[in-house]
Amino acid sequence: MDFIKHLKMEFNRIINIGKKEISDTSSVYIIAEAGVNHNGDIQIAKQLIDVAAEAGVDAVKFQAFKTENLILKEVEKAPYQKNTTDSKETQFDMLKKLEISKNHNKELIRYCETKNILFLSTPFDEESIEELLELNIPAFKIASTDTTNLPFLKRVAQTGKPIILSTGMSYMSEIELALKEIYPYNKNVILLQCTANYPIQDIEANLNVIKTYQSAYDIIVGYSDHSIGLGASLYAVPMGAKVVEKHFTLDTGEKGPDHLASLNPKELKDYVLEIRKIERYLGSDVKKPSFAEMKTRKSLQKCLVANGNISKGDMFTESNIIAKRTGGVGISPIYYSDLINMKATKGYSHNDIINE
Q1: Model pTM?
Q2: Integer Cα distance of 179 and 51 in angstroms
Q3: H-assigned helices in the chain
Q4: Which residues pair with 224 in a beta bridge?
Q5: Distance, CA of 258 to chain centre
Q6: Quick check: 191 and 211 in contact, CB under 8 A?
C-alpha cells in the first residue's frame, strides 16, 4: 500500500523524551507504570515514585482522567476488574476514587524532579490532555482504549509532543488508521505491542507482532507488558523493543484493578537489572573479536607449519603443510590457498612455522 511505503520513509527514528534519546542504538527506555495503583492517595503515589527511582527506571507513569468525561455511569467493569475489586461497584464508581487532580499531578511532577526521574501520564479524555499540556508533560502515552479514538489521537498529535501508542484490543487495520490520523501532524511516534488483559496468559503476549510492526512500518517499536512476573518484556528486548512498560505496585495483594498484574518493589528492581543485562548480552551488531578475545585468539587460533621436512625449492602442497597452534606466530590458514604451488624459499623441518 502506498501509505505504508510512505510511513517507512518518514517516521522519526530518533525521539527525545526529556533528556533521554530513544533510537535504534539507544538503551531500552523503561517506563514503570504506577497507573492507578496509588489507590487515590497522593502519599502512596509518592511512595511509588520512590520505588521507581530506586529501581533505576527512566520514567514513572500515572493516568489522568475525569471520570465523567471517560465513561457512562452504569457501565460494568471489565472481567479482570470484577476479579480484583468489588464486583457490585460500577466502573464509574471505581474510577472516581482513583482520579488524580491537576494540582496533585503538579505536586507529583515536582516530587519526581527531586528524585531525578521523569513523570509521564496517560490522558483518557480531552480535558486531561489540556491539563497535562499546561503542566508541560514531555510526552503522551496513549492507552489501548484510545487506539481507535481517531479524534482523540488527532488532538494529541497536534500537540507536537512525542506519542507512545499502545495497541491492545486492536486489529492491524485499526492501527494503520490510527497512524494515518497521527501522521500529518506528528512523526515522533513509538508503537507498542500490547495485550489488554490484567494479567495475560503467556500465549497472549504475541511478541511476534513486534516483527510485524517492524516489517510494516518504519517506526520505533516497544512492548507494554501485562504478563505475570518479570514476564515477556525480557524477551521483547532482543526482538527490537526500544521502549518497555510494566505495571508496579507497593503490594500485589492490595485491592484495586491492576495490583495483581503488577511487579512488587523488589521485582521492579530485578526487572530493570535483567533488561540492562540483556542489553549487555546483545552488545554490538558488528562481528569482530572483542578486546579480551584478542589474547585468546593469539593463543588458540592456528597458523601454518611444516607437516614433515620441506626442502628449499619444493612446492607447498596441501599434504606438506598443516595448521597448528603456534602462539599467534606465522601465516593464518585462512590464506593457505595463496601458499599452495609456491616454492619454498628455504628448508623447513617438521613443525617449523611457515614464514614465507
Answers
A1: 0.89
A2: 34
A3: 2-10, 42-55, 67-70, 79-84, 91-96, 102-114, 126-134, 150-158, 172-182, 208-216, 233-236, 265-282, 291-300, 336-339
A4: 194, 245
A5: 21
A6: no
Decide: 143 and 84 in contact? Cβ < 8 Å.
Answer: no
* CA-angle at 177, arms to 171 and 183, nearest 5°: 135
Query: Could you tell me how many residues make up the chain?
Result: 356
Q: Which DSSP letter does residue 195 get? A: -
Number of other CB atoms surrounding residue 152 within 10 Å: 20
How far is the C-alpha of 269 from the C-alpha of 77, rounded, in Å? Answer: 31
Residue 169 has phi, psi (to 5 degrees) of 65, 10
64-94 burial code (b ≥16 CB/10 A, e <16): bbbbeebbeeeeebeebbeebbeeebbbbeb
Spatial separation of the C-alpha atoms in residues 282 and 277, rounded to whole Å: 9
- 265 and 250 Cβ atoms separated by less than 8 Å: yes
pLDDT by residue for the chain (356 residues), tens only, comes to 445 444 454 799 999 999 999 999 999 999 999 999 999 999 999 999 999 999 999 999 999 999 999 999 988 877 878 777 777 788 898 889 899 999 999 999 999 999 999 999 999 999 999 999 999 999 999 999 999 999 999 999 999 999 999 999 999 999 999 999 999 999 999 999 999 988 999 999 999 999 999 999 999 999 999 999 999 999 999 999 999 999 999 999 888 788 888 999 999 999 999 999 999 999 999 999 999 999 999 999 999 999 999 999 999 999 999 999 999 999 999 999 999 999 999 999 999 999 99
Q: Which residues lie below 8 Å from residue 354, measured CB to CB, with a gap of 6+?
A: 303, 304, 305, 306, 316, 321, 330, 331, 339, 348
